[in-house]
Amino acid sequence: MKTFAIASAAALALCASTADAHSWLVKPKSRDATPHVDMEGTMGCPAGAAQAPTSFAAGQTIDVSWWRNNHIGGFIRWAIVPKGQESAANFDNNVFYFTCRESGPTCKPNMPGKKYNKNGGPGDLSRYSWDMTEAHKVACGDKIQLPNWLPKGDYVLQWTWFGAGSSFDNFGHAEVTYRSCADIRLTSGGNKQKPSCPKFVGGDRVTTAENMSADQCFYYSPNNKIPKGQLKQDNNNYKQYYKFGKPQRVIDCQNKARSMDEYEYPAETSAVEEESDYPIVEEESEHPSEEESEYPVEEEYPVETPAAEYPASVHSFNFTEIDA
Question: Spans of biased composition, class Polar residues (predicted)?
Fold first, then answer.
């Protein structure tokens, strides 16, 4: 029995260490298949030459995917600019879509036969599950609709991962922000008016498993805005930092649009959402509530040096937020 326990612990450690490998945009094909860290919130596109574009029509609904790699919760931001205009500011001004990071029918830990326990830990089928397999095996993804208000031409699609937790198996630490870019071509132009707010499509692995409302994502709080630096909180009480909600930019824009009676896009159920096939072991009286308020920043958070294949600076940053 003792031998089995030791072997099980070793297997968990191996799964954690091999799969905590960060991620990048897989589909459509990104400029390079490498994770790129954006600690300062100033990256437009990572280094990498432009590639032959993938062709789509304006307004087309397309499949998108990336690797889960052990990280917990979070959001994906989608932005698009004409080719040759890939600055961070231009992307920030042309955000058109947000999805949940853990969305898609294949975005599930490799734990066949286990019952879902929302109060479990990383080795359980829970909110905080590891992949329980090698890196780059558990694919997350969604369907997004490309803008239907742009003229035909060559564009660059930016993928931004933010609001995820669990950095190098530290569940109390935020995972850093990652960026990828993909070259696309719109073969036809759109004829619609640009909406006042980016579209948000909620629903992820956790909301599906727990039969919750799909107008939200599970994420590491308070990072529902793209942060600078890396927030590190208490590993011993990490569950308190994970919440359900929307990206702050969506909240702010919807509130402003409602006040002007111009709001166009209510949140939708994810296009790839499935009914839960996990029976829930334990129930709680209520779910964590969404936080919508700004929060003061009074401390500096050290930046963890990423792995060798994606170097970043090693000095400390103030943990602040940018307009995501």
Answer: 315-324
How many other C-beta atoms lie within 10 A of the C-beta of residue 252? 17
Residues β-bridged to residue 145: 61
* pTM of the complete model: 0.78
Q: CA-to-CA distance for 126 and 123, rounded, in angstroms?
A: 8
Closest by CA to 169, choosing from 305, 14, 324, 8, is 14
Strand segments, DSSP code E, in 45-177 are 54-56, 61-67, 75-82, 95-100, 139-145, 153-162, 165-167, 170-174
128, 167, 230, 175: which is closest to 17 by C-alpha? 167
DSSP 305: P
Structure confidence by residue, pLDDT tens digits, 87-118? 999 999 999 999 999 999 999 999 999 999 99
Q: Tokens in use for 123?
A: 């080795």
Name, in order, each residue with C-beta under 8 angstroms of 74's C-beta and a sequence gap of 6 or more: 100, 101, 102, 161, 162, 163, 164, 165, 175, 217, 219, 220, 223
Q: Which residues pair with 115 in a beta bridge?
A: none
